[in-house]
Amino acid sequence: MKLCPICHRCYEDTDNVCVHEDHASLVPSRPGSRLINERYRLDRLLGRGGVGAVYAGTHIELDRPVAIKLLLSDFITDQQAVRRFRREARATARINHPNVAEVYDYGTNRLHLQTDNLNLPQRQNLLQQIRDANRQIHSEMSQKEE
Ligand SMILES: [Zn+2]
Question: What is the pTM of this model?
Fold first, then answer.
């Protein structure tokens, strides 16, 4: 998958130039297609953390906006990172909070967040909400580890 370095839209490896206003040269981003599990299409990179990246995407069968969190490819073989990611998905799935998107699918290196219940201004602020959610999840996880 390739990424536009300016608008952060996602492209397939066969694409070379961003078709949006910036017409920037695309840069390689992750191995594989932007289509995940033949169901989720990565549309735009929203943000990158220490071990994961969050994308705005689409559930292509249902034509529904989703947020998808992926482990960075450097960490896919890191068992500790994979375990932490799984715990995060499970912890997120248990939380019922208006600012926490619902987890409705999970793979070993993927976390899919449902954003249906968010209105447009909330959706534009999705990254901040995911940061807040991650903070809450990690504080719950560290309390459990104590
Ligand atoms: Zn672009």
Answer: 0.70
